[in-house]
Amino acid sequence: MSSNIFSHSLFSQITSPISNHRPKPTSLCSFNPYPLRPISRSPVFSTQSKTSFITNCSSPASDNSSKDETPIELRFPAFPTVIDINQIREILPHRFPFLLVDRVIEYNPGVSAVAIKNVTINDNFFPGHFPERPIMPGVLMVEAMAQVGGLVMLQPEVGGSRDNFFFAGIDKVRFRKPVIAGDTLVMRMTLIKLQKRFGIAKMEGKAYVGGEVVCEGEFLMAMGNSE
Hints:
By secondary structure, this protein is α+β, with helices and mostly antiparallel strands. The chain is 30% helix and 26% strand. The protein has helices at residues 2-20, 43-69, 85-91, 138-153; strands at residues 103-108, 112-118, 165-175, 184-195, 200-209, 212-223. Strands 1-2-4-5-6-3 form a 6-stranded antiparallel beta sheet, covered by helices on one side. A hairpin with a 3-residue loop joins strand 1 (103-108) and strand 2. The termini are far apart.
């Protein structure tokens, strides 16, 4: 009997605090047993990160859109005109089918000239050179370059005469690549040496297609007198 009373009192002492102390119900939303400190970000850091992200992501798209918006026919400017075909005809004595200069795009009086020849399938030499593979003859490239040299030599700064000006010789001529229909031949002729006493001029010439040299060499021009 005494043992029962002792066990009952012991059990009551152990269980009574738990039964009397019940935790108050809490909301899951407001329950925060371990409050976290708010992380403060520097405004400079966040701004730079955002700017860098926008720059890296948006720049290629804007570049592509600008390229897509510009039609190909508007992307490449035309060659400038310093001396047009009508003025060329007034300087050079050549006529069809041997006038091989269409436009002068740069001219330094008494020093150099840069001109172009538009090579088309309608040029009269293509049916025979060659019917299956139209290629501009090398001798005609040399002739076209000599005519550009004539545009330099027949100006008042040099004193050449249209009636007494001749292509005297060529040296060290090299043909690098073929010139075909559809190409634009860009020719630069530079005066290297002029001997007015003997009427001899030495010039250096280079011809380009698409920025690559297709022909180069040295030219001799002879200027006679009217007597």
